[in-house]
């Protein structure tokens, strides 16, 4: 079996194992324990290792910058489209949740195995450099955006301004993930990389970082809860995301037609990565803070269950798209084909939504008329 496909199947099997453990680990305290292990141990360790292994070349600085531009472009499209097309309330928890998740990328699980198998180590190296920009987006900007929404929901106007900034800084310094980033950047600043650490420090951190992927996938399997209506919306959103991404990749290849074949493949496949776990980490942190405050929050900032469901579907969906790219013998290397595929995926996402809204609009007047007749009949009975 193709090693990239085998790796994808093994990742999906971990979610299946999580599903089989749902009865044994169904209590809230079990879920909280797994969250603590992920957010306070595994996630800081893997971020520390990733940053300390960074080898950046000045000639490739445009790769992480382009990745950040992609993140922000997708964020802007998400803000514009979701309320207008999908009817998601612009100031609601679902909108904030999807706005954090959809623009994020997790190439390590859904993209790099395929790049390594079908293209080689050079493609993985280029993708890793581009991922630095994505990491800045998901680790720093997404966290600041999530905290901004949290304080907007949790505080009254009297507590904003200077006190709000102070509270944000205190929260930033208390988070293990942010401490790991700070220490890693400090060590990189003095010229230390991961291989320079003594073995008694580096080995435990490496072992803890290895926990990250299996625990996340098990956690998704244990806690995921699908409803058919939400399942359809998530699939539609993922189709929309993939379609827009193919269009953006096509624009990138038009803008830089002289890219090498390896670089072009990275530009096509890297943005098709599954959504990242790190926004879910921010969402879980804020949800825990809200639970501690209890009634102080008028309405939740995020919808953690929706975030879990998006993550659960995004991994197999992304792997299927990436596998299709590598299985079509250069079809996606042509810009017109990228635009055609993007348009087709957008149509698959948008047309069912528009048809559903048209049916609902046609049904509403009839339903209102029937309700009016029922009310009139009830009045006659009362009289």
Concise overview:
The chain is an all-alpha fold. It has helices at about 5-20, 30-50, 60-85, 95-100, 105-110, 110-120, 120-155, 160-175, 175-190, 200-210, 210-225, 230-255, 260-270, 280-295, 305-325, 335-380.
Query: What helical percentage do the residues reach?
Result: over 70%
The tally of beta strands, per DSSP, is: 0
Overall pLDDT metric: 80
Overall morphology: globular
Alpha-beta content class: mainly alpha
**Radius of gyration in whole Å, from Cα?**
23 Å
Helix tally equals 16
Unreliable residue stretches? 367-373, 375-383
Highlighted features:
383 residues, mainly alpha, 16 helices, disordered C terminus
Characterise the protein shown here:
The N and C termini lie far apart (76 Å). It contains 16 helices and no strands. Helix content is 77%, strand content 0%. The chain has helices spanning 3-20, 28-52, 62-86, 93-101, 107-110, 112-118, 121-154, 162-174, 176-189, 199-209, 212-223, 228-255, 261-269, 278-293, 304-326, 335-382. Helix 1 (3-20) runs antiparallel to helix 6, helix 2 packs parallel to helix 9 and helix 3 (62-86) crosses helix 7. It is an all-alpha fold and 383 residues long. The protein is globular and about 55 Å long.
């Amino acid at each position: 079996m193709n090693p990239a496909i085998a790796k994808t199947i093994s990742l999906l099997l971990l979610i299946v194992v999580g599903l089989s453990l749902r009865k044994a680990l169904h209590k809230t305290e079990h879920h909280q324990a797994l969250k603590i292990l992920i957010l306070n141990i595994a996630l800081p360790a893997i971020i520390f290792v990733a940053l300390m292994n960074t080898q950046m070349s000045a000639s490739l600085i445009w790769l992480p910058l382009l990745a950040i531009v992609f993140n922000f472009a997708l964020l802007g499209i998400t803000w514009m489209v979701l309320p207008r097309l999908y009817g998601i309330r612009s100031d609601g928890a679902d909108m904030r949740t999807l706005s954090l998740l959809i623009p994020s990328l997790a190439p390590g699980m859904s993209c790099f195995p395929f790049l390594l198998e079908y293209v080689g180590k050079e493609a993985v190296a280029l993708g890793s450099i581009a991922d630095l920009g994505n990491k800045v987006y998901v680790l720093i900007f997404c966290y600041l955006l999530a905290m901004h929404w949290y304080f907007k929901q949790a505080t009254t106007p009297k507590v904003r301004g200077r006190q709000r900034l102070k509270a944000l800084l205190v929260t930033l310094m208390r988070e293990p993930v942010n401490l790991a980033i700070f220490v890693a950047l400090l060590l990189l600043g003095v010229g230390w990389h991961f291989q320079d650490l003594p073995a008694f420090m580096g080995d435990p951190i490496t072992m803890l970082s290895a926990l990250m992927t299996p625990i996340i996938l098990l956690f998704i399997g244990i806690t995921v809860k699908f409803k058919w209506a939400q399942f359809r919306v998530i699939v539609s959103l993922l189709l929309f995301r993939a379609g827009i991404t193919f269009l953006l990749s096509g624009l990138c290849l038009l803008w830089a037609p002289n890219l090498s074949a390896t670089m072009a493949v990275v530009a096509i496949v890297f943005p098709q990565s599954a959504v990242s776990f790190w926004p879910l980490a921010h969402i879980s942190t804020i949800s825990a803070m809200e639970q501690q405050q209890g009634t102080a929050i008028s309405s939740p900032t995020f919808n953690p269950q929706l975030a879990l469901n998006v993550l659960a579907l995004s991994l197999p969906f992304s792997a299927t798209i990436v596998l299709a790219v590598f299985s079509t013998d250069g079809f996606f290397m042509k810009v017109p084909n990228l635009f055609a595929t993007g348009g087709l995926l957008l149509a698959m996402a948008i047309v069912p939504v528009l048809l559903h809204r048209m049916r609902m609009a046609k049904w509403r007047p009839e339903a209102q008329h029937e309700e009016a007749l029922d009310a009139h009949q009830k009045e006659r009975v009362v009289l």
